Here is the input.
Amino acid sequence: MDVQSLLLEYHGLCSRWMPHLLQSTCDAAVARHLYGKLLYRTPGGFFAIADTAFPRNEARLQGRIKTPLKKNSTLLRQLLQEGRIAEYRSLLRFNTQLVSSRQAAE
Here is the structure.
């Protein structure tokens, strides 16, 4: 099974296969058309998965592009210290799924 087929099967939806957008060399100028699709043509609850180098700082893209936690992220430790165990477990599961999805795409 090739990566494209795996993504279609795993996510259930793929409107267009754009492997060049998965590369870390992609910048905001190249991805501008993707931003429009994420904002105006993507149903609620759906999002793009990217690496942390992908430009996603615009407030209007909040929640439309998900990235795995950075290795030096303090969020998980902070949740544990505050006793927010359910949130910790949920975030850890979600992060594991993001990493797995990205690895499948690479």
User: Anything to note?
Assistant: Strands lie at 48-49, 65-66. Residues 1-12 have pLDDT under 50 and may be disordered. The first strand starts at residue 48 and ends at 49. Residues 85-105 form the longest helix (21 residues).
